Structures are given as structure tokens and as C-alpha cells.
Amino acid sequence: MGEHGNGDPKDSGAVIKAGEGESGKYAIDNPGLPPHRPRLADESEKVAKGAERVVSVLFLLSIIGTVVFFVGYFAIGQTEGDLQLLRVQNTLLGVGVAFAMLGIGLGVVHWAKTLMPDHEMVEDRKPLRKETEREEAETIINDVLDESQIKRRPLLRNTMIGAALLAPLPFIVTLRDLDRSEDFGVERMRHSMWDEGVHLVRDPSGTRIRASDLTVGTAMHVIPENLRTISSHGERLSEKAKAVTLVMRMNPEDIETVSEGRENWSHDGIIACSKVCTHVGCPVALYERHTHHLLCPCHQSTFDAANEFKVVFGPAGRPLPQLPITVDEEGYLIARSDFTEPVGPTYWERGNTDPEGDYAS
Questions:
Q1: Has this prediction a pTM greater than 0.85?
Q2: pLDDT for residue 350 is more than 70
Q3: Is residue 283 exposed (0-12), middle (13-18) or buried (19+ Cβ within 10 Å)?
Q4: Which end of the chain is more exposed for a tag (fewer CB within 10 A), N or C?
Q5: What region holds the Rieske domain (predicted)?
């Protein structure tokens, strides 16, 4: 069978190992980088100027998009009650932000593909010496500036700077203007539309609810009847967000905890609480009738309806505020008062000092 007759390819001579052969280093010689193919913009200054104009136009498109956003945001102004004007404003805001971001993105991509150097290179990693670090860093920065051609092409540079400065403004203004009121704080969340004698009604029909309409195990989303008297759409949404309430009915003997002063807050096993989770304000919407637990789907905070809605699991910091309720002469459910503590996340109470002590942090 000969010298290599054992059939092992490693011993047959058919496979050249690294370090063997004529090169003495590689089984196959390093072919190196492929030859560079110059682009049209590399060979023709006219083409390069054209590419520069295209990039500048894209940056200008970004600037125009930002301007369109501000026209829709400030020129149209408040749109409450006018759905047609609201659609126009939303269109301008969306189109403006889209073009602001799209112009910058496409401009940078086209700039990199047509004007920036595209030579492939292999650079050996060298240890930096402390005495030369600053000089090398300065050299790298200068090389980047030269390769990007920012110094050579002022039109491209100026339009890019203008687009980059303006593009973030829509996001800054939008986030800053999430709430326009000057009294944004705990006092706004302390009071809602609930008051003594206000009927509990179904949402969105506004139908009043009799105690007899609720069977054991029933849970229902309700709002205050006087919410419908607010004419301003924006204000109505704001007040509704604070006043949304869950009503449920259980066997009276299943209610385990009734604190002093809360003896008349329920009616024949019917209890009510704020629907706004005390963790970060998500809507608590899941009711388990056998355990009497309410679950917030966002972060799984769990509240025990049988024990004054105290937290039994999850990150929520305090119980859900309970709404005192009773019935009127016709058997309809009504509120005895507003919530006695602020609704919503616990942080609303931080820094608050209430001389009457009607709620605690």
C-alpha cells in the first residue's frame, strides 16, 4: 500500500498543513485585499458635486420636515372638538417627524456611499504609548475629518448641522408639552369628579346601575355620571382618567377587613375602587372572583378586594383607593364622597404634607 497506505488523509500528503509548503506560513497564501474599484465620484469632480447636492437636498428635506412639524403643532393650535382639524394636525405632525428623520438617515447613507473613502484596509493593532496617545488621537480625528470631506464641502457640512440641530426639537417639544398645566402635582390627582350623590354609570352608555343589577362575582367598569357634563373633550378625558372605577360584588361575609370609619363604604357586598394601579398607573382590569384578587396586567401587582384592596403581590406601593358608595332611594348606586386619597402611582404623594392626615404615603 506504500508509504501512505493507511488511508489517513493527514498522512496521505493530500492535505497541506499551516506552516508547511513553500510559504512556510499558510496552507494557502493570503490573497490580500481585492483591487479597489473607483467610483464615478472618485474620478469626476462633477459627479462628486452632484452627489454633494443630493446629500444637501436630503438634509434640507429633514429641515423642511421639522418646520412642517412645528407648523402643525403651533399654527393649528388646539383642536378640541374639531375632528377634521385634528386629522390635519396629526398628519402634519406625523409627516413632519418622518421626513425630519428620513432626510438625515438617507443623507448620511448617501454621503457614505458616494463621497467618503471606500478603500478597504487592514490596520495592525498597536499598543498605545502614553506619551503618544494624544498625538495619535488627534491624528485619527483629523483623518476622519479629511475622509468625511467636511472641510472641503461647506454646503454639505452646513446643511447637515442645520438638520441635526432641528431634528430633535419635535421630540423635545412633544415630551415637554405632555402636560401644559402649572399645577401638575399631587393636588391634581387628589380630587376627581366623584362627589356625594354622584351616580355610578356604565361607560360609555351612561346608564345608571342598580344594586340589584350586580350578582355575586360580577365586576364592572364605571364612571361618574357628572363626567358627561364637561364639554371640553380634553378635560373630559383627563377627568375620566382619574375617575375610572371598578365595582364588584361578593358575599358580604367574604369581606374580611373593614377599618374604622369605613363601615358604610360598601353596600350589601358591593365595593368599589380606583382602576388606576398605584405602581405606574396602568389600568387594573382583571378580577378573580374566587380569590377576590385584582390583577394589574402591566407588572402583575395584585390587590385583595376582600381586605380593602391591599397589595398582596407585585411592585405596587400601596392599596388601591376605595370609593365610598351607597344607594339612593330608587336603588341606584351612588358615591358617598370622592376618593379620600390621591389616585394613581404612589409617587404622587411624595413630598406632600396634609394637615388633615386623610391619606398617608
A1: no
A2: no
A3: middle
A4: N
A5: 265-334
